[in-house]
Input
Amino acid sequence: MPRFVEPVTLRGEHAMLEPMGREHAGALAEAARDGELWRLWYTSVPVPEAMGAYVETALAMREEKGAMPFVVRERASGAVVGSTRMFNVEAAHRRLEIGHTWYAKRVQRTGVNTECKLMLLTHAFEALACIAVEFRTSTFNLPSQRAIERLGAKRDGVLRNHMILPDGTLRDTVVYSVIAPEWPAVRRHLRFLLER
Output
């Protein structure tokens, strides 16, 4: 029986999303070094030395829970510049979450994130016929909240004491979503942002 989310490569003008594999660990470690992303305590970017374990966990999530981890490749340079994932897949309810997203510092605040979200949402709503797509982030990750809101997602609420972080800190999680009736307007908005 096929999985709800099968491996797929998504191509845009600025970025390409390709299924994550073990061979990407070194390139992902290099991308994380750009900006020392693991130092942001409210995110879950691993130190470069732990990137192999990060990839293994992502691939296990794929096999055991139907997730689809991607590496983000910049089209102009061909370099791997980050990672993102479709996960918390609920095939029976035609919904999923997009997250575990991080980018090398040099491509942050460029068209890469906007285009990746456009590709992922297009695949979710138009190929998978999802009824809803969620985004979640830490209450302390204000840049991520602004980026999610800029996409056109609506804030659903806050899950208090939602997670225990590796350092023992309790994380409150802000939940956003885009639902199927909103998708045409969100798609138009994302295309508008990219054209600018």
